[in-house]
Write a structure and sequence with these properties.
The chain is built from 15 helices and no strands. It has helices spanning 3-7, 10-23, 27-49, 52-68, 79-92, 106-115, 130-145, 151-162, 167-174, 178-199, 213-218, 237-240, 254-257, 266-276, 279-286. Helix 4 (52-68) crosses helix 5.
Length: 287
Amino acid sequence: MNMNQTEESGNKTELEVLAAQAAEGEKEAVEKILLRIQDMVFNLSLRMLGTVVDAEDASQEILIKVMTHLGDFRRESAFTTWVFSIATNHLLNYRKHMFANAPLSFEYYGEDIVNGRTEDLPDRTGGVDRGLLEEELKMSCTNVMLQCLDGESRCIYILGTMFKADSRVAGEILGITPEAYRQRLSRVRKKVGDFLKEYCGLSGGRCSCKRRVDYAIATHRVNPQKLDYLELPKAGADVHEYIEAMEKADDCSQVFSGLPMYGATKRTKEFLTGFLNSDVCNYIKNA
């Protein structure tokens, strides 16, 4: 089910009813909302910040922010659009993640692909299946590659290519017109597409995840003993309900649009469970 369909279905009505109940102090409604949106929030955070650890931390902060602002929801837009607006604003201003003080660029990424030593390296897999490490590298590389875009461009690309939001919904989330969103998405797609065509082996470029496994381990980009992406749970049905159909993406965009959606991590779920049962949460809900 896509986001537009959700707006016209019982799912959207259910979330809005829950939001109204939560604003009136019903604790169970608050819990249901946060459990329903946690996967969506985690996936957006992961794409925007590039690492699982940073996505976990940001997701926790966003979920608390949604909870404490439920009374501000005025039904002027779909509830999920409202959540996306809170989340994107938080992530665009997030300064605690790995790449905040060490931003990447496509020039740097391309130079590393061209000049990084990948030949004649000793086996660094530590007995871990090389195919699994190759898949981990692909997931890590594609998410980190997004950090080569400035924050707004990254958000536009993620909403359009991975979450497939239509221009009306995405424009509302970002506070720009649908026309402006479409124009910016087109420019960002071209920029990413040009890079992928030249460098990414998945799009016919010169790089190969298979050849770079040992190099990635040597440069601490992949840890054979902790495969963050392969350990992530797959998303449940809820997160896919927020995906909006869009025009067919170009071939290069398929590298990103084909990435899996994940469920929130065990750490995030444990945080949410613990928080919902905490005295602090009870105080906030009763305030």
